[in-house]
Design brief:
- The protein is an alpha+beta fold.
- The protein is built from seven helices and five strands.
- It is elongated and about 50 Å long.
């Protein structure tokens, strides 16, 4: 039987020369290297799309933290991904306020419309769907975050239009790169 190798999340991390240069600049900005943990994690995810265990070990080395401390940071913040995701990352807040306003029903409607179960990615790799903890819009739940864009008050009745917009965005080359639209709830950063 062939050895399948390490699980995908435990692959060695090989930072690019640009990543090495950026990491040195990021760490140099802080009097304590530990303070560079979040910016380094953002940079790793920006370049790789997710943060592997190998990348967490690398960030730990750069910041003087232990790998378990970095894992604690990555697992605490919902914006960090520990596995590759689809081209669109759809997250439904399930914290109390959103849960009381129907987040579970919204999730079921998204599963149906997107053809994907929670915690999974569509077969074509287009969309990853998951629950997350607080997206900090408690008064306007249920809240759904698509990549960086927040959508408030997403009831099951609004899901078909949101799912159609997600599918349509897959063909947009500049998705997520446009400046914010004044008066829009979306942040396209």
């Amino acid at each position: 039987m062939d050895n399948p190798g390490p699980p995908p999340g435990n692959l060695p991390f090989a930072p690019s020369p640009g990543m090495l240069e950026a990491a040195a600049a990021i760490v140099a900005r802080y009097p304590e290297p530990r303070s560079a943990t979040l910016p380094l994690l953002h940079r790793v995810q920006e370049e790789n799309g997710w943060i592997s265990l190998g990348a967490m070990r690398w960030v730990a080395e750069k910041t003087g933290r232990t790998p378990i401390e970095v894992l604690g940071v990555v697992s605490f913040y919902p914006m960090f991904r520990q596995a590759p995701s689809g081209r669109r990352h759809v997250r439904v807040c399930r914290t109390l306020s959103c849960a009381l306003r129907g987040a579970e029903d919204t999730m079921r409607a998204l599963e149906k419309e997107l053809g994907c179960k929670r915690c999974e990615t569509t077969a074509d790799g287009a969309v990853t769907l998951e629950f997350v903890e607080c997206l900090a819009c408690c008064a306007t739940g249920p809240v759904v975050q698509v990549d960086h864009a927040l959508h408030e008050g997403v009831t099951p009745a609004r899901v078909p239009a949101l799912a159609a917009a997600v599918r349509a965005s897959l063909s947009e080359k500049d998705h997520g790169l446009r400046p914010p639209v004044p008066g829009s709830p979306e942040w396209n950063g």
